[in-house]
Structures are given as C-alpha cells and as structure tokens.
C-alpha cells in the first residue's frame, strides 16, 4: 500500500471511495453539510433513519452518482472515545473492511480536523489502522487467489489546509516505517513451526540487520556451551534443531550512552517438552516466539526511524520438544549466571531461556532491561486476550511503558512483584525452581526472572501471552499474529525512553 498526503478539499477529490471519519458528537460538520447539499439531501435522509450516528463501528456507504468527483462516500463512526488515536485506528480498520467487501484497492481518507499540534498523530493513527488492518498471511495459499478480497494499493490522506500537510506527511511516514516492522513481526509469528527453526530466526535477524544497518551476532550451540548457557541449552536439547542466541545492536544515540536492552523469548514451537501440553490449540504454540519477533521488529523500526537511542536486542531462540534427548522434570541446570535451577515442569521453558538471556544482557552494562515473552497461560486467565501484564523493579520505567500502552492501544496492566512471591519458587535442592504452582503463575514467573536481571538494573517484564495472538481477528488486528510490542516500544522510545 502506498500512502500519500494531499492538501485537497475532500469534495473536489476524484477517487473510487471518499472515506470520512465522523465523531459521534459531530454529525453536522461544515464538510458533512456541504456533502449533503452536493448529494441533494441524500445524506440527511440517511441520517434521519438513525442508521448512522457516528458511533464506533457504524458505517454508511453512499453512491455519489455524478454529483461528486468521488464515486462513493463512506462515513465511518469514530465514537466519542478518548484517546483519539485508538478511535482513528479502529475507524480506518473499519474502512478497510468495507473497501474489501466492495473489492476496491484505491481510496482517499479525510484526516479529521484536529488541533494543529495533533495533526501528525491523527494522520499516523489513520495510516496505522489502514496498514495494520490490510495485513493478511497468505503466502501458503496457492488456489483461488483471485477470490480473496484485494488488498489496498493507493491511499490518499486528505488535509483541508496546506499548513497541516508537513505534519501529516511525517505522521504517515512514521506509520509506514513502524507498520513495516509490525508486519515483519507478524509474518515471523504466523510462519509455521516446520519452517521456523531457531536457525531460521537467526537468519531472519541477520538479514533484517543487514537491510537496516544493524550489527548482528549469533551464538550457536557450541558457543553457547563454551559460554555456559546451561538453561537455554537444556530447553533446546530435545530438538534436532539446535538453539541460537541472537544479539542485535543499534547505536543511534550518543557514543558513550549506556544502551537499553530488549530481551525477547523465541520458542519457535512449544510442545511443553516431556511435560507435554494437551493437543487442543497446541498449534498456536508456533507463536511462542512473539517476544523475540517484537524485539526484532522494534530494532528494525528504531533504525528505520533513526531514533537517537542505543539499543541491544537479545533473542534466545529454541524449540521445546519431547524426545530421548529432551531435558526432564527433576533435572538441575546450571545457568549462565551460575545459579542452579530445579526443573519441575519442562513446559515452564520460557523463563529458563530468558534467565540466560538476561544474564547475558549484563555484558552490555544496560541502563535498563525490558523483556517481552509469551510466558504464562495464567496471564490469559488473569487479564484476558487484549492486555499485556507488566511487572518489574522500577516504577518509573513501568509507568512510562504504561503511558506508551495507552497511546498505542497496546495496553498494559501492572501486577505486584512483592518479595513474598519468592517463597513459591524456593527449591530444596537448587537455588530456585522453575515453577511456583498454580497461584499467581504470572507473578511467580516474573519473580523467577528477577533473580537473573543484571544487579541493580531497572527492569520491566511484559507478559504478552494474551495479546500476541488473535483467535478470531477484528479491527486492525487480523486473525493470527498481532505483532504486539513493536508499536508500544517505539512509542516508549519516541517519548524519550
Ligand atoms: N508458552 C507458554 C505460555 C502460553 C500459554 C502462552 C498459552 C500463550 C498461550 C509457556 O511456556 C508455558 O507453557 N507456561 C506454563 C507454565 C507452567 C508450566 C508453570 C503455563 O502457563 O501453563
Ligand atoms: Mn511452555
Ligand atoms: Zn512457552
């Protein structure tokens, strides 16, 4: 999809479909009044039926005949919801759904009137909604491709006054860079396990790094052994596809400035190992590398936007399978940190690979560490499918991440991480055990991770088990991988990290 910003009065614009987002409280704007006049009262007739009031999710499609240069006019409701960004993303996504029904590939979308300083954000949110909603994972479809609804080709964002054009253009440009990275993350997560080995993750990371101008280093099994990454190696030993530790570096900030470390869990397939998962929905465990994908996407987008920050991305990539060589319940592992871990459940593998990755992060003397992981089913029980759990050691860091969550629609909810939870992961035979039982599963997982965070380093943990995957799909989140985390972290970094 190509997005351009045009300074053009909407009713003079020739296009197959002119899309006008409408706030619920503003069904009588000058633009809509003029439109009604041009359509000889057809709009007010339609509005009188009460079918369209600008509520979120509402739409009204009118054919313009010869009365406008545009062939059709589509009104999409924005509701009265604050914050505006989320309403605009959803409105744009609704427009995409209608365009697909109509099998249209080109359209123009009016950027609603805003305060001048909000024009860039509004254009950005609309462009994000379009780009994110238009995504589809169709690379394995070989038949009847012509029956699929078409994806968008040319989109014009219309700005009434020339004065707002630069800001809108910049907003749309940033949206395109960030959404390209979200798409990359989604593609990786949607990719099936038979394609997606740890080595594949490393190759993808290296290719992305070359394209974006980042440094990329990959440790293979032999090097992990030399380093002493006993926890990561144990999780990977049941699969013939050997683990990797991927390390990316983006230095866009001041040379002397300490980096922010981003750590992402990348279990390319999580069967549970010998503590085998039930069969139902096991297929979705190809998405257990969504944290790693989010880190890759964030690194790519940060480079694309030339953000003035120093970033390290650390991605432990591994496959968790049962086999004759698999690690077992009862095994005691020596992690990279030197701490020993009693394995009680081989399905609690994410925290094991993150333990070594967090220890590894210390080598870069980070000013803070943020990890992202599809870590616990308990998180879905607690918060559902649309909320990321955040826990950590630094309230200011957590608060800034939560703020970015409100702005991007990738919202976070904080859970406590009091010392008392450590009781649940005490082991009689090792320094710590890898499960804390049923109660507060998301918290005890985080309590486990805390033991491996570099000494004194501010740290936040994001459990994305819920929002990383859409079972049905809707709005700007199509079925399957969501790419959650990329827009969140980019917003966090843009706000000064
Ligand atoms: N990858 C899973 C968590 C998960 C489950 C993510 C469902 C998304 C959807 C993780 O490795 C896991 O299996 N966790 C266990 C931990 C338990 C054994 C302590 C869980 O949540 O059941
Ligand atoms: Mn697991
Ligand atoms: Zn897992």
Please explain how this structure is put together.
The structure is a single chain. The chain has 497 residues and is α/β, with parallel strands linked by helices. It has two domains: 2-180, Leucine Aminopeptidase, subunit E, domain 1, CATH 3.40.220; 191-494, Zn peptidases (Aminopeptidase). Helices cover 34% and strands 20% of the residues. Strand 3 (59-63) and strand 4 form a beta hairpin. The longest helix is centred in the middle third of the chain and has 26 residues, at 165-190. The model has no long low-confidence stretch (mean pLDDT 97). Bound molecules: ligand BES, manganese (II) ion and zinc ion. Manganese (II) ion (MN) is lined by residues 270, 272, 347, 349.
In short:
This protein has 497 residues and is an alpha/beta fold. Helix content is 34%, strand content 20%.
CATH architecture of the largest domain: 3-Layer(aba) Sandwich
Oligomer: single chain
For the record, the CATH class of the largest domain is Alpha Beta
Instruction: Work out the number of β strands.
Output: 20
Keywords:
binds manganese (II) ion, binds ligand BES, elongated, 20 strands, alpha/beta, 14 helices, 497 residues, six-stranded mixed β-sheet, nine-stranded mixed β-sheet, Aminopeptidase, Leucine Aminopeptidase, subunit E, domain 1, 2 domains, binds zinc ion
Fold blueprint:
Blueprint: E1 2-7, E2 18-23, H1 30-38, H2 42-48, E3 59-63, E4 72-79, H3 84-101, E5 106-110, H4 119-133, E6 154-159, H5 165-190, H6 198-212, E7 215-219, H7 221-227, H8 230-236, E8 244-251, E9 260-264, E10 266-270, H9 290-304, E11 310-320, E12 332-334, E13 340-342, H10 350-361, E14 368-373, H11 377-383, E15 388-392, H12 395-408, E16 412-414, E17 432-433, H13 441-450, E18 459-463, E19 469-470, E20 480-481, H14 486-494
Parallel strand pairs: 1-6, 2-4, 2-5, 5-6, 9-11, 9-14, 10-11, 13-17, 14-18, 15-16
Antiparallel strand pairs: 3-4, 7-8, 8-11, 12-13, 15-18, 19-20
Helix pairs in contact: 3-4, 4-5, 5-9, 6-9, 8-10, 9-14, 10-13, 12-14
The structure holds ligand BES, manganese (II) ion and zinc ion.
């Amino acid at each position: 999809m190509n997005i351009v910003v045009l300074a053009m009065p909407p009713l003079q614009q020739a296009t197959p479909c002119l899309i006008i987002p409408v706030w619920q409280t503003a069904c009588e704007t000058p633009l809509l009044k003029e439109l009604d006049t041009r359509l000889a009262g057809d709009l007010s007739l339609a509005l009188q039926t009460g079918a369209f009031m600008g509520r979120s999710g509402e739409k009204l499609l009118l054919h313009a005949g010869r009365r406008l240069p545009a062939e059709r006019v589509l009104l999409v409701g924005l509701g009265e919801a604050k914050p505006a960004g989320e309403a605009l993303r959803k409105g744009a996504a609704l427009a995409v759904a209608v365009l697909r029904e109509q099998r249209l590939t080109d359209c123009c979308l009016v950027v609603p009137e805003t305060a001048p300083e909000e024009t860039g954000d509004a254009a950005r949110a609309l462009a994000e909604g379009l780009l994110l909603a238009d995504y589809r994972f169709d690379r394995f479809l070989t038949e009847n491709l012509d029956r699929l609804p078409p994806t968008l080709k040319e989109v014009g964002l219309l700005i009434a006054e020339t004065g707002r054009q630069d800001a809108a253009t910049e907003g749309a440009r940033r949206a395109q860079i960030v959404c390209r990275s979200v798409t990359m993350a989604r593609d990786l997560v949607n990719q099936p396990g038979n394609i997606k080995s740890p080595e594949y993750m490393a190759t993808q990371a290296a290719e992305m790094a070359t394209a974006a101008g980042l440094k990329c280093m990959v440790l293979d099994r032999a090097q992990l052994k030399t380093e002493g990454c006993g926890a990561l190696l144990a999780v990977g030993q049941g699969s013939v596809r050997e683990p990797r530790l991927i390390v990316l570096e983006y230095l866009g900030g001041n040379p002397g400035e300490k980096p922010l470390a981003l750590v992402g869990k990348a279990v390319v397939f999580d069967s549970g190992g010998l503590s085998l998962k039930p069969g139902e929905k096991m297929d979705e465990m190809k998405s257990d590398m969504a944290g790693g994908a989010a880190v890759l996407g964030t690194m790519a987008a940060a480079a694309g936007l030339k953000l003035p920050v120093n970033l390290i991305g650390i991605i432990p990539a591994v496959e968790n399978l049962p086999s004759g060589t698999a690690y077992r319940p009862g095994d005691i592992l020596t992690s990279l940190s030197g701490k020993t871990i009693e394995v009680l459940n081989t399905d609690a593998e994410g925290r094991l690979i993150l333990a070594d990755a967090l220890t590894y992060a210390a080598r870069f003397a980070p000013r803070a560490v943020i990890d992202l992981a599809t870590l616990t089913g308990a998180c879905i029980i607690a918060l559902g499918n649309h909320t990321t759990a955040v826990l950590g050691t630094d309230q200011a860091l957590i608060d800034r991440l939560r703020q970015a969550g409100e702005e991007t629609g990738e919202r976070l909810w904080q859970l406590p991480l009091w010392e008392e939870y450590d009781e649940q992961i005490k082991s009689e035979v090792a320094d710590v055990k890898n499960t804390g039982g049923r109660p507060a599963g998301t918290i005890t997982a985080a309590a486990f991770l805390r033991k491996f965070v570099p000494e004194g380093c501010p740290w936040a943990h994001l459990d994305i088990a819920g929002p990383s995957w859409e079972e049905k799909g809707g709005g700007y989140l199509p079925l399957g991988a969501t790419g959650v985390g990329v827009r969140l972290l980019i917003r966090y970094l843009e706000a000064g990290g």
